[in-house]
Amino acid sequence: MSGFPERAELLTMLAAFGGRRPEQVPENLDSMELAWLIHQVEERYGRRIDLDDAALARMTSVTSAQQVLRDHVFEAADD
Questions:
Q1: For residues 79, 52, 11 and 16, what is the CA-based torsion angle, rounded to 10 degrees?
Q2: In terms of CB atoms within 10 Å, which of 12, 36, 48, 66 comes out highest?
Q3: pLDDT more than 90, % of the chain
Q4: From CA 63, how far away is CA 77, in angstroms rounded?
Q5: What is the pLDDT of residues 40-78, one digit of tens each?
Q6: Is residue 42 within 8 Å of 49, Cβ to Cβ?
């Protein structure tokens, strides 16, 4: 699998944490949800995610997590 995960896919991954439906996932992420999401993206896309503290601190919501992943993981790998 290649490409960048769309928001709907991120919500599906997060929904699996806690047995929720994607529409039940809140916009704001807690630290356990963030750890789960990073692990799921690593597994699904076969990419090691090694972010610095500043990047991790910006990942407070689904939207910001998607942006950080795009900027630091997927665009960097395409260079």
A1: 120
A2: 66
A3: 75
A4: 20
A5: 999 998 889 999 999 999 999 999 999 999 988 887 665
A6: yes
Using only C-alpha atoms, the chain has a radius of gyration, in whole angstroms, of 12
Q: Any idea which residue has 């910001």 for tokens?
A: 64
Indicate the residue type of 47.
Answer: R
User: Bridge partners of 61?
Assistant: 28
* Global confidence as pTM: 0.87
Angle at 16 between CA 20 and CA 12, to 5 degrees: 90
Which amino acid, 23? E
Burial (CB count <10 Å: 0-12, 13-18, 19+), residue 66 = buried
